[in-house]
């Protein structure tokens, strides 16, 4: 997740939201940050993810592969979601510690076993492709989960959300949709609530350390969505928070009309570029050959679809060799 974006297929759980269901060829085109990220990273990866996966079970399975840092993020998000959907008040300190331990000792352990057994329910990239997992790597993932959840319980915003009460909560871990022009946009919203002063607070829990490449668009997307849903009359009535739980660091931002306009143009341009590669943009249909592979071995080495692009073992070895080269 913290690896340089130029070298690997991004593993940022905040970008690759599990619920970011691809709009398939039959149901039409929906723009999302995950989709934009896939498109920027590799056209072929994008085509597999959004046009082949909905039709092909094996490609869908590969698309869903997790990986250690992404997995840690998913465990944190699932634990937070469960808590926010079932509790009306902050758990006691003893309960908090029990929740943190259960995330590691029950949830992570269960996932790990499923992955080792090649379960269709959960599978790690590392197991799928036989990438060695050092004990230190596992310790890092466990550390991220424990630190993130403990900081979540301490976070001022969580305390504030429970203080105003569930009646003021607007959404919890929902995949929301809104429109920019004629483009449908999908966005995952972790938590949105109305604070005591009537302002809408939208929180994004993150387990990475660094600001994502598209966080400005993401924040503006929250504002566009809040306006379309009638939560706010103007962007100034909104406060967004990127909560880097593993650090912890809380970045609060406001959004203004200029940023919104920039985000609108950005989304429309991105959607237009994606559609321009389709054979039939109205029917949302394309051909694999119009979405080329990239020549970036380091990126391919960590890509879920590596097997499809490099089916022969000698080709995989060549990718490994090129990726390892200084
Ligand atoms: S293996 Fe490489 S070329 Fe193939 S989809 Fe992945 S990143 Fe693209």
What does this protein structure show overall?
With 326 residues, the protein is α/β, with parallel strands linked by helices. 48% of the residues lie in helices and 14% in strands. Strands 1, 2, 3, 4, 5 and 6 form a six-stranded mixed β-sheet that branches. The model is unreliable at 1-26 (pLDDT under 50). Iron/sulfur cluster binds at residues 9, 42, 44-45, 48, 293-294, 299-300, 303, 305-306, 309.
Instruction: Report the helical percentage.
Output: 40-55%
**Chain oligomer state:** single chain
The chain-level mean pLDDT equals 88
CATH architecture of the domain at 161-265: Alpha-Beta Complex
Pick out the low-confidence regions: 1-26
Name every ligand kind in the structure.
iron/sulfur cluster
Q: What is the H/E order? A: EHHHHHHHHEEEHEEHHHH
Largest beta sheet, briefly? 6 strands, mixed
The level-1 CATH class of the domain at 161-265: Alpha Beta
Q: How much of the sequence is in beta strands?
A: 5-15%
The number of distinct helices, counting runs of at least 4 residues, comes to 13
Tell me how many strands there are. Answer: 6
Pairing-aware structural class of the strands and helices? alpha/beta
Distance between the termini: 21 Å
Radius of gyration (Å): 20 Å
| CATH topology-level fold name of the domain at 161-265 | Lambda Exonuclease, Chain A
